[in-house]
UniProtKB/TrEMBL annotation:
Cofactor needs: FMN
Quaternary structure (record): The complex is composed of six subunits: RnfA, RnfB, RnfC, RnfD, RnfE and RnfG.
Source species: Clostridium cochlearium
GO term, biological process aspect, one: electron transport chain
Residues with FMN phosphoryl threonine modification: T153
Any one GO molecular function term: oxidoreductase activity
Protein name per UniProt: Ion-translocating oxidoreductase complex subunit D
NCBIfam families per the UniProt record, alphabetical: rnfD
Function, as annotated: Part of a membrane-bound complex that couples electron transfer with translocation of ions across the membrane.
Amino acid sequence: MSETTMYTVSSSPHIREKHTTQSIMRDVIIALLPATVAGVYFFKMEALLIILASVISCVLAEYIWQKATNQKVTISDLSAVVTGLLLAFNLPASAPLWLPIIGGFFSIIIVKQFFGGLGQNIVNPALAGRAFLLASWPVQMTTWTLDGATTATPLAILKGAEATGATLPSLMDAFVGHVGGCIGETSALALLLGGAYLIYKKVIDWKIPATFIGTTLIITAIAGRAGNPIYELFVGGLMIGAIFMATDYATCPITPKGRIIFGIGCGVITSIIRIFGGYPEGVSYSILIMNLFVPLIERWTTPRTFGKVK
């Protein structure tokens, strides 16, 4: 009598490569180091405390949940650390420390673990955590500082705050990061360095960042918003969103055509919100919305198996 062996199959894709989850996350952490240094340089100790609180909260939330549910503890794969960093990068330095703690537990437990853990969440945990915090505590999430002074973000100025007397920073300041905004989004230079590293290490594909950024630039340039269209690239969350969040393996398409469609969709939604929405930035919401369309995009773009009848 033959024995029956039961196998546990993880979420797809089932492709063996030299990269492991831990090595991928380690490369992402390395790629985020320039933006971390820039954030602490421009926003001082407040930024460092926010980053530490966010990372520790995410790691602790994953550990507590997996212990409580008798699962294997997987904090060594570093995915919770990456979520903590990205969540912190989407917070203002003036945020109270309880904000990243609540956001960290929400991102890990509600968005990630409730759906089965790493690779099975349907939206990006850090972005979902940011959206939750913005909806729950909008004042704390939209108070921007630079050098200890409250300041308008360049996107708010582009949106119409220039009528109050605010002026756009120089393109160099916007590129380097000497502007108001969230901790990890202000320095386009630091984020581009990190993105170049990830592309070089073949951790991410260039298609999503390129189509996301390019679509946003084209649409906002056609719309004729105030200021040089290049501002649309350097300010706000476009760089960090396109490079580090839209490329999340669990929540983006795996096919080349699918990634192009995904990036274009993100760019279109971001532009619509920036131009017509009541909030000056649309990167987070565009990625979250497109995350929900990933199954449909993959259905459209996955090559049909040879011999399969429609």
